[in-house]
Every structure is written in C-alpha cells, then in structure tokens.
Amino acid sequence: MRIYLLKWLLAGLVVPILLLTTGSMIAWNQELLLILWPSSIVLFSLGAGPNEFVDVVWAWSIGTVLNMVTYVFVGLCIYVALYLKRAHREHS
C-alpha cells in the first residue's frame, strides 16, 4: 500500500512541475487545470500585482503540497473502495 500511495503522491507533482517548466498557465485549459490541480486556487492569493519572491514561493509550495495531499486522499479512497469490493466478492 505504501508504494501505491507513493505513486499517487508523485502524481500530485506532475501538473505543478509541468507548469513550472512550461512557465505559462494561460496555455492550459483553465477547467482542466482546476480538475488536475484543484489546489491551484491558492495561487489566486498572489493577485495580479507584483509580489515578493518569498510570497510566490510560499503560494506555490502550499498549492503543490495541498495537491499532493489531495491526490493521496483520492488514491486512498480508491484503494479502500477496491478493497471493500474485493472483500465483499470473496464473502459472497
């Protein structure tokens, strides 16, 4: 189960890393971005004006960690659902 959850944890890093390497959120479909990175809403706290570097790093860090936690939670829910389904099938 640890490996399974580790895969979900790393999957939560994919979208933030892609955005950091491509450097543009405008090229992404906004709805798709919110589905794949639900905690990107944290970046709205930066606003449209200039920000200190520390604020930007802090917002990206919080958004990325929240995304990883969200992905692990989804993975855990899927794992439990599959486990219960398998257990129900074995007892039937």
Query: What's the Cα radius of gyration?
Result: 17 Å
Q: How far apart lie the N and C ends? A: 25 Å
Beta-strand segment tally: 0
Q: What structural category do the secondary elements indicate? A: mainly alpha
Give the tally of structural domains: 1
List SSEs in N-to-C order: HHH
Question: Residue ranges: pLDDT <50 for 5 or more in a row?
Answer: none
Binned, the helix content reads over 70%
Number of helices: 3
Outline the biggest β-sheet.
none
> What does the overall shape look like?
elongated
Percentage of β-strand residues: under 5%
Characterization of the model:
With 92 residues, the chain is an all-alpha fold. It has one domain. It has 3 helices and no strands. The chain has helices at residues 2-22, 30-36, 53-91. The relative contact order is 0.17. The model has no long low-confidence stretch (mean pLDDT 89).
